[in-house]
Automatic annotation (TrEMBL):
Its EC number is 1.3.99.41. InterPro entries: Acyl-CoA_dh-like_C_dom (IPR025878), Acyl-CoA_Oxase/DH_mid-dom (IPR006091), Acyl-CoA_Oxase/DH_mid-dom_sf (IPR046373), AcylCo_DH-like_C (IPR036250), AcylCo_DH/oxidase_C (IPR009075), AcylCoA_DH/ox_N (IPR013786), AcylCoA_DH/ox_N_sf (IPR037069), AcylCoA_DH/oxidase_NM_dom_sf (IPR009100). Belongs to the acyl-CoA dehydrogenase family. This is 3-methylmercaptopropionyl-CoA dehydrogenase. Keywords: FAD, Flavoprotein, Oxidoreductase. Residues 467-592 form the Acetyl-CoA dehydrogenase-like C-terminal domain. Involved in the assimilation of dimethylsulphoniopropionate (DMSP), an important compound in the fixation of carbon in marine phytoplankton, by mediating the conversion of 3-(methylthio)propanoyl-CoA (MMPA-CoA) to 3-(methylthio)acryloyl-CoA (MTA-CoA). Its cofactor is FAD.
Length: 603
């Protein structure tokens, strides 16, 4: 069975030293609650819960899967008890508003816990995972009555939430949905339709499930402008707010999936189910985006957690596995062969995993600061800037971290060789579980269009300029730091090039809008690599400063520098390929007609 130790040392480096979280928390209203002692206790207890409670259920949950019995789903053995411990420990309410029963701590702390959960048991983590987004949607858009009825239950974790978007005939194009909402007496609506791919849509972990459902009213405009949002509980709350009469929503079947077997991915049938409008009629998509944005960042954290888990186990295996001798001569002459960690190609794979895990952690924690400021900041200008950065970074967090997270889990299998392909080691499960992260909550292609089309080009590049200006200031400030030149010089060059590439795409798109779609994924990946380069440069600066002062943990800081150097020399050059693909334009993609794609393969 794979092992896992929460990377507390690396978390402390990023939070306390590189991003100065203590000062960040001190600037937030009620931030004094997130004192260093409180933060340390949360991280340590979260690490214990993840390793001791969730990790032992990961492989067994994958092998057992979920069972559908008479419309009721049974989660794998041990999942329900683990969820009860999670609720008893107060974890669901960590970052929620005290007004609704939350602890009022910054959202960034909950995101750190989320990484540990994703690394140890992604399938289990998806049961409570969407509840936070459902709570946010109701907090921002629900009526006072809806908040009183559902929000406290979601916050405390006794009820869980879902978001029901996709239908059999449509995926991301929600304007095509067919689910209908008919007005009934008392201001309620009868919801009828079928939703698919609903994570945790039915289970036995919590006493009630609150579905947030997209549907169309009888007089709704066509397309996405005619979508409304409804809250549809599994059990209708009684007069005391407890689960009462069973509503007209049932799980029709469970999807048979490549991975995340321990999570119930459901086909949900709504047959005149009683629902209640959330927000204004025909404005449901805007309401749902509150939930979707939280979910997108959550999925990016899934990619990070799986990369870290794969790296830790690949590293342990590489230290123990004996095979061949080092090309430069035996490194363990007392043994029959050298451990494979001495071989350059194994080190390449391990360092790739390490760089993506540590770089991804820096990106998530940097983005988490933006969330804290947007949610709790007291300075309007700072909030506006943070919101702009959050909008820019959200598709990068989601898509880039899941792409490289999947790469990292694949490298983990490769380090194990044939043993990685065998179920008992658990490495192949990480690959299967990681594969879905590139798909749900919007594929990489959808995230790329959001980044390039909506966030960058539609703002005439202004949102990007907010971030590139920050990078430019960093490079300017370190221009005379010779020790940091190996990082600052290539970063400064790429930062300038990022703006030039963006302008070039925009100019081409004025003549042919297909240029945006042709460039988008390469643009997103390019953006992700440059973003991590900025963060690695900051980490290198911090490591150099600490080493110069003298540190008892010098090996850790030297490791930071070596990882940053590997990233700049071995991974950052991938931007060259993405740049060349972007500049190639749309012509070679769009020249062939759809019917000619299969020429030569007809039966």
């Amino acid at each position: 069975m794979p092992d896992y130790q929460a990377p507390l040392r690396d978390l402390r480096f990023v939070m306390d030293e590189m991003l100065d979280y203590p000062a960040h928390y001190a600037r937030l209203p009620a931030g004094e609650e997130a004192s260093p002692d409180v933060v340390a206790a949360i991280l340590e207890e979260g690490a214990r819960f993840a390793r001791e409670v969730l990790l032992p259920l990961n492989q067994s949950g994958d092998q057992e899967g979920c069972r559908l019995e008479g419309g009721e789903v049974k989660a794998p053995q041990g999942f329900k008890a683990a969820y009860a411990q999670y609720v008893e420990g107060g974890w669901p309410s960590l970052a929620a508003d005290p007004e609704h029963g939350g602890q009022g701590l910054p959202h960034s702390l909950a995101m750190v816990l989320n990484e540990m959960i994703c690394a140890t048991n992604l399938a289990w983590g998806m049961y409570p995972g969407l509840s936070h987004g459902a709570a946010d949607a109701l907090r921002h858009h629900g009526t006072d009555e809806q908040k009183a009825t559902y929000l406290t239950k979601l916050v405390e974790g006794t009820w869980t939430g879902t978001m029901c978007l996709t239908e059999p005939h449509c995926g991301t194009d929600l304007g095509l949905i067919k689910t209908r909402a008919l007005p009934t007496e008392g201001g309620a609506y009868a919801i009828t339709g079928t939703k698919i791919f609903i994570s945790a849509g039915e289970h036995d972990l919590a006493e009630n499930i609150v579905h947030l459902v997209l549907a169309k009213l009888p007089d709704a405009p066509e397309g996405s402008k005619g979508i409304s949002l409804f809250v549809v509980p599994k059990f209708l709350p009684d007069a005391d707010g407890n689960p009462g009469e069973r509503n007209g929503v049932v799980c029709g079947s469970l999807e048979h999936k490549m991975g995340i077997h321990g999570n119930a991915t459901c086909v949900m049938n709504f047959d005149g189910a009683k629902g209640f409008l959330v927000g204004a009629p025909n404005k449901g998509l805007a309401c749902m985006f509150t939930m979707m944005n939280a979910a997108r960042i959550g999925v990016g954290i899934q990619g990070l957690g799986l990369a870290e888990a794969s790296f830790q186990n690949a590293l342990a295996y590489a230290r123990d596995r004996l095979q061949m001798r080092a090309l430069s001569g035996p490194k363990a002459p007392e043994k029959a062969a050298d451990p494979i960690i001495v071989h350059p190609d194994v080190r390449r794979m391990l360092l790739t995993q390490k760089a993506f895990a540590e770089g991804g952690r820096m990106l998530v924690l940097y983005t988490a600061q933006m969330i804290d400021i947007v949610e709790h900041g007291s300075d309007a200008a700072e909030q506006e800037r943070a919101e702009t950065l959050l909008g820019l970074l959200t598709p990068i967090v989601k898509a880039f971290l899941t792409e490289v997270g999947f790469e990292a889990t694949n490298e983990g299998v490769q380090v194990f060789g044939g043993h990685g392909f065998i179920q008992e080691w658990g490495m192949e499960q990480l690959v299967r579980d990681a594969r879905i992260t590139r798909l749900y909550e919007g594929t990489t292609g959808i995230q790329a269009l959001d980044l390039l089309g909506r966030k960058v080009l539609m703002s005439q590049g202004e949102s990007l300029k907010v971030f590139t200006k920050e990078i430019h200031k960093f490079c300017q400030a370190e221009e005379g730091n010779r020790a940091l030149a190996e990082f600052v010089r290539p970063l400064a060059k790429l930062n300038a090039e990022w703006g030039e590439l963006t302008m070039g795409i925009g100019m081409k798109a004025m003549a042919d809008r297909e240029e945006v779609g042709a460039a988008s994924v390469d643009y997103l990946m390019y953006s992700g690599y440059v973003t991590l380069a900025y963060l690695f440069a900051r980490a290198a600066r911090q490591a150099q400063a600490t080493l110069a002062e003298g540190s008892e943990d010098a090996a850790f800081y030297r490791g930071k520098l070596n990882t940053a150097r590997f990233y700049f020399e071995r991974l950052l050059p991938r931007t060259r390929t993405h740049k060349q693909a972007i500049e190639a334009g749309a012509e070679s993609l769009m020249a062939m007609s759809a019917k000619d794609f299969g020429r030569g393969f007809e039966l």
